Amino acid sequence: LSERRHPLSDLELACFCEILGSTTIISEVDLCSNHISLVGANELSLALRSNHSVTRLKLGDNDLKSEGVLKVAAALRENAPPAHPLVFLDLSSNSIGNHGIVGIAETLAVNEMCMITEIDLQHNNIKCQGMIALAAALKVNSSLKILNLRFNEIGDIGATALGAALLINSSLTELDLGGNKIDNKGATALSNGLLQNKSLLKLNLRSNLIGDGGAVSISDALRRNSSLTELYLGCNNIAVTGVSALADSLKANEVLSKIDLQGLEPGSAGILALSDSLRKNTSIKHIVLTLDKCSSDEISAMASAIRANPVLTEIQINGDAKIDPELMAAISATLKLNKYVAGIVEDTGFATLAKPVPNTSPAVLQSPTKVTNTTKPSNPSPLKELGM
After folding, report:
1. How much is the pLDDT for 318?
2. Which of 273, 271, 328, 315 is nearest to 297 (CA)?
3. Neighbours of 209 (CB within 10 A)
4. What pLDDT was estimated at residue 113?
5. What is the pTM of this model?
6. Closest CA to 163 of 211, 205, 117, 112
7. Residue 6: which residues within 8 A CB-CB, separation 6 or more?
8. Do residues 107 and 138 lie in contact, with contact meaning Cβ atoms separated by under 8 Å?
9. Tens of pLDDT along 168-207?
10. Pair 98, 130: CB distance under 8 Å
11. What are the residues whose beta carbons fall under 8 Å from the beta carbon of 233, sequence distance 6 or more?
């Protein structure tokens, strides 16, 4: 019932909610973009109190505001017995604000009544006060795995509260904080949380205000963190010092498989440091870079590092990088080879048969330039057994 040409009226929604309150067969409800009024939100909350079948509820882009969200949150807490089966909740673009997020936090804090594993709260005008309440809930919640807070305004104070929660929380695996006005202080607090956190696998900090100081703190955390596999730092204010520190941390980190450095200002020293790290790192498979300001020597150093790296399988190059076609061809060919070798390792675990990777589309260069080793070798090796 989402994105209808004519949004549901209060009467139509009330009719649907009457069915929802008694059904045992509906597992997913999509009411996005229906401009649900406070009256409609009240009808929905009444239905949720008696419903025991819905596991996925999408309410994005309804302008529910804090009053409507509070009704939904209360219904999820008061549904009995013993807990509402909902595992996915989309409340994006609803102007929830700090008051509304407090209701969500209260629901997440009641562990025995909450089974939610993923919640989307992006574009909701949540500021530091609301984030403090949500962070407090994360200290006791043990069900939530994926939290999307993209494009709110939690700032350094909110990030500090969240960093403290990461020291305790052991269930969160993905955290999206893109576009939240987080500066160096907030990045440092989050880094402190990463020093002890062992559950978080994916962290998005794109489009914030993080500078070299924050990047250095993140680098320190990467040297000791043993769980994070994806880190997105693109479109921040990180320059030579920060990129060099991040590059150095990659020499020690053995678990990070994807890193996004798009739109940073690495300078010559940063590019060379990153090139040196890629020669030694054995976990990074996907890297996003901006090379449009690099000299031919710096790009050559990067190409050489990629050729020496045995595991890198994908590189995205953003901007109008004037890269020599021969260098790009060398990068592409190396990535194809790395993919082939990685396929052997992943498919067989060093078993006796060397299986080539599946045949997919050839490597392509796009904007942003994306070079992927997805080609099956035209003449697979006849090798059947290898003992090392």
Report:
1. 66
2. 271
3. 16
4. 73
5. 0.86
6. 205
7. none
8. no
9. 999 999 999 999 999 999 999 999 999 999 999 999 999 9
10. yes
11. 205, 206, 210, 215, 218, 246, 259, 260, 261, 264
Q: Can you tell me the distance from the alpha carbon of 312 to that of 277, in angstroms, rounded to the nearest whole number?
A: 12
CA gap 319, 321 in Å, rounded:
6
Tokens of 80: 């009995």
Half-sphere exposure at residue 221, Cβ-oriented, CA atoms within 13 angstroms? 27
Interatomic CA distance for residues 259 and 282, integer angstroms: 13
**Residues 6 or more apart from 382 whose CB is under 8 A from it?**
none
Quote the crossing angle between the two packed helices 38-50 and 10-20, to the nearest 10°. 10
C-alpha–C-alpha distance, residues 339 and 346, integer Å = 10
CB 48 within 8 A of CB 80: no
- Which residue bears the tokens 């040409």? 5
* Cβ contact 162:128 at 8 Å: no
- Least Cα distance to 165 among 199, 140, 147 occurs for 140
Q: pLDDT tens digits, residue range 208-256?
A: 999 999 999 999 999 999 999 999 999 999 999 999 999 999 999 999 9
pLDDT reported for residue 367:
40
Give the distance between the most distant pair of CA atoms in the chain.
Answer: 72
Give the list of residues 6+ apart from residue 289 with CB closer than 8 angstroms, or none. Answer: 261, 262, 274, 302, 315, 316, 317, 318
Q: What is the rounded radius of gyration, in angstroms, for the C-alpha atoms of the chain? A: 24
Residues in the chain: 388
Contact partners, residue 378, CB within 8 Å, separation at least 6: none
Task: Retrieve residue 138's tokens.
Answer: 């994360």
Output the 3-class SS for the chain: CCCCCCCCCHHHHHHHHHHHCCCCCCCEEECCCCCCCHHHHHHHHHHHHHCCCCCEEECCCCCCHHHHHHHHHHHHHHCCCCCCCCCEEECCCCCCHHHHHHHHHHHHHCHHHCCCCEEECCCCCCEHHHHHHHHHHHCCCCCCCEEECCCCECHHHHHHHHHHHHCCCCCCCEEECCCCCCCHHHHHHHHHHHHHCCCCCEEECCCCCCCHHHHHHHHHHHHHCCCCCEEECCCCCCCHHHHHHHHHHHHHCCCCCEEECCCCCCHHHHHHHHHHHHHHCCCCCEEEEECCCCCHHHHHHHHHHHHHCCCCCEEEEECCCCCCHHHHHHHHHHHHHHHHHHHHHHHHCCCCCCCCCCCCCCCCCCCCEEEECCCCCCCCCCCCCCCC
